[in-house]
Design the sequence.
């Protein structure tokens, strides 16, 4: 027994010695990071409300008898225990023995539910909790409701309003998702860090070992703009973590002399490198490693990733060389409508059948269109459209039509006819939002048309008529097709670029003037000498927003600290600072901004106008206050260093208040409240400040420039017209007099 005890002690001491040797020996083998550390896969329970999934087909009837709700399954998750919780209310006119509601999951029939069976005429709402078979789940999933409704067996009309069933808006799906340990392979990029199948906002932490310098921030901004372009309408946010491992998928920036504690023994690299590993904290979370000898290598690694990820495979890729990347031209952002030629609808498609509608009430054909925000549209009817469309032959007695809508507001309509031509063509316009005959700035105008500062939804709604040969019957729906021809065009090539600034609504919705060049080559971003993680997070979220607007990574952004910035000409300047550091080192800016913050000291200067429709400023008022609490300000003004350049500053009274700025610039409802030359943002409201210092950027012909700026001054314009007429008359008189003298001289000879 003593011998056994001695053997156990010796074995224990030997194991302890070996473990201590392993723990103190520098790690040179990366294989330990391949699959992280073994632990149980985390499980999360989700509730997916129909409203959050974009479902709007709550009401079913005899014609619109199908309704679909879509949801996705993440690439790194396994979904189980799917439960559909819903209720519906039936028309009391439906016959219970022949009417029913079919339920499909990914086109597999799940169940058939009765209508009005054993229900009173007062209470006819039915609730169900139905389990969905997880083996049918796919990347893209669909639950479909189909109503089969009859109100009379002898006299049936599919269009009768007695046929209806309405699904409750409280309906939802519950499920459990188990994390999946996927392979660490670069060919999956941008997955799993961004999942294109997800409808959710992208949240991706960026991790540094210590506060990043300018080059490291530029690298991170380039990567955030790339992910932002991928996320597009979903939105994206990139919280900055310092020397802390994220509890989700993350991006970690590592140099040979700056490594976070959880990767302190990770081997050095001798060139820019991209790697994917499992987190050493949780193997179900992946880390995208941006590796380099120094921060210059980090920029090279990020550029190699965003422009070369399609040819990367395996777990690791080193960047051997990057040829000189071409500079983008003004207004050539991939997501902006081209301004050098007409653009066909085929160039705007997101999927192949986007331009086709089928059925009596299929829903409109939709296209998303974004224009350069500084198009000069003064006294223009709108953006010309050459529209071509075709449809199945229509009965001459039917009133079928094609309606054109912009941002869900009716613009124009066209009758569908049954003639011999295959394709009908017409010329029309996309009217301009708030287009007037004046140069005055009028706020809160609600006029049908496009908003140049935002993404616009162009919709074409085919409305087919129906044949009703008798009192009780009508021809069932089916076989109706309407197609917008892909050769239809939108032409913005005849417009110049000229805009009145400051206009924070244009900045908030389109990123202008910084997004004029999609690669941000003419943008200078100034930050505090010691920026907080919250300030850098705002910076990354803002560049991600720019990437979503342009569809291109801002890899030429220049980042500088306030104390070291010296060259401001030829740059549009974006400033992110706390209140107590607002423009301390750039004194020229203080005189041009409307709101100044310094700790609890705040000053505001606002222009006072004569009346609601008068653009003349009578005086300005300045108020100085002492106040506490969270406050953030966005201010736009002309650069004192270059008259053709602009400055936009984002200032917060505390580090946590930077989140107010981020939320305001990503929340669609709050986004439209940002206007004027300054926006004061609190937790509850966004208040706009007007300015009397308006300036213009861009180029238009000289004669248009004169008429444009004098159109608000009719007396000066009339006087100028009279003087021009006198001058022209004098020139003609002198010319005729010279010709007369010449003829007389020739006659004397």
Sequence:
């Amino acid at each position: 027994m003593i011998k056994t005890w001695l053997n156990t002690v010796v074995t224990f001491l030997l194991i302890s010695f070996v473990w201590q040797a392993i723990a103190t020996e520098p790690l040179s083998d990366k294989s330990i990071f391949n699959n992280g550390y073994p632990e149980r896969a985390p499980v999360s329970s989700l509730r997916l409300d129909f409203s959050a999934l974009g479902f709007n087909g709550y009401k079913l009837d005899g014609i619109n008898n199908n309704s679909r709700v879509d949801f996705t399954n993440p690439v790194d998750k396994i979904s189980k225990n799917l439960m559909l919780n819903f209720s519906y209310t039936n028309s009391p006119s439906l016959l219970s023995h022949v009417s029913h509601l079919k339920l499909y999951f990914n086109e597999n029939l799940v169940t058939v539910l009765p209508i009005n069976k054993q229900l009173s005429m007062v209470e006819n709402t039915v609730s169900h909790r139905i389990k969905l078979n997880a083996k049918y789940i796919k990347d893209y999933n669909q639950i479909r409701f189909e109503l089969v409704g009859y109100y009379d067996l002898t006299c049936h009309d599919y269009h009768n309003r007695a046929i209806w069933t309405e699904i409750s808006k409280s309906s939802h799906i519950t499920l459990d998702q188990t994390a999946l340990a996927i392979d660490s392979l670069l060919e999956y990029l941008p997955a799993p860090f961004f999942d294109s199948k997800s409808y959710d906002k992208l949240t991706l932490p960026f991790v540094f070992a210590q506060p990043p310098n300018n080059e490291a921030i530029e690298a991170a901004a380039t990567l955030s703009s790339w992910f932002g372009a991928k996320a597009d309408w979903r939105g994206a946010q990139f919280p900055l973590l310092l020397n802390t491992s994220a509890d989700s998928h993350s991006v970690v920036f590592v140099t040979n002399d700056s490594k976070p504690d959880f990767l302190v023994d990770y081997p050095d690299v001798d060139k820019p490198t991209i790697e994917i590993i499992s987190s050493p904290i949780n193997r179900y979370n992946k880390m995208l490693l941006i590796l380099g000898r120094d921060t210059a290598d980090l920029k090279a690694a990020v550029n190699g990733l965003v422009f070369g990820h399609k040819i990367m495979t395996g777990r690791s890729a080193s960047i051997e060389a990057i040829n000189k990347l071409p500079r983008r031209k003004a207004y050539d952002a991939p997501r902006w409508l081209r301004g050098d030629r007409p653009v066909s609808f085929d160039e705007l498609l997101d999927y192949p059948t986007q331009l086709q509608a089928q059925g009596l009430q299929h829903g409109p054909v939709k296209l998303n269109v974004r224009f350069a925000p500084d198009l000069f549209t003064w006294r223009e009817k709108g953006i010309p459209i050459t529209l071509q469309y075709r449809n199945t032959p229509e009965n001459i007695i039917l009133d079928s039509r094609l309606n054109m809508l912009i941002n869900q507001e009716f613009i124009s309509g066209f009758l569908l006819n049954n003639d011999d031509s295959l394709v009908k063509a017409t010329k029309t316009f996309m009217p301009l939002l708030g287009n007037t005959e004046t140069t005055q700035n009028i706020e809160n105008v609600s006029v049908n048309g496009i908003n140049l500062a935002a993404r616009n939804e162009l919709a074409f709604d085919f409305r087919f008529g129906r044949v009703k040969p008798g009192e009780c019957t009508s021809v069932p729906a089916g076989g109706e097709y309407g197609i917008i021809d892909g050769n239809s065009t939108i032409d913005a090539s005849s417009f110049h670029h000229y805009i009145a600034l400051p206009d924070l609504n244009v900045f908030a919705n389109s990123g202008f003037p910084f997004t004029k060049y999609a690669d941000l080559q003419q943008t200078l971003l100034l930050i505090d000498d010691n920026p907080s993680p919250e300030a850098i997070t705002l910076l990354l979220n803002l560049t991600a927003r720019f990437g979503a607007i342009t569809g291109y990574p801002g890899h030429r952004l220049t980042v500088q600290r306030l104390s070291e910035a010296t060259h401001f000409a030829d740059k549009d300047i974006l400033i992110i600072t706390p209140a107590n550091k607002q423009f301390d080192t750039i004194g020229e800016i203080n005189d041009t901004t409307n709101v100044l913050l310094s700790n609890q000291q705040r000053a505001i200067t606002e222009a006072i106008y004569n009346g609601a429709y008068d653009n003349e400023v009578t005086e300005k008022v300045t108020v100085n206050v002492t106040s506490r609490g969270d406050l953030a300000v966005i201010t736009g003004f002309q650069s004192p260093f270059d008259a053709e350049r602009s400055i936009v500053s984002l200032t917060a009274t505390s580090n946590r208040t930077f989140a107010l700025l981020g939320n305001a610039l990503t929340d669609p409802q709050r986004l439209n409240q940002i206007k004027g030359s300054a926006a004061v943002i609190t937790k509850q409201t966004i208040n706009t400040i007007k300015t009397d210092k308006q300036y213009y950027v861009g180029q238009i012909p000289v004669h248009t420039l004169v008429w444009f700026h004098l159109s608000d001054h009719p007396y000066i314009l009339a006087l100028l017209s009279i003087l021009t007429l006198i001058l022209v008359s004098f020139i003609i008189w002198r010319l005729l007099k010279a010709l007369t003298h010449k003829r007389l001289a020739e006659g004397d000879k």
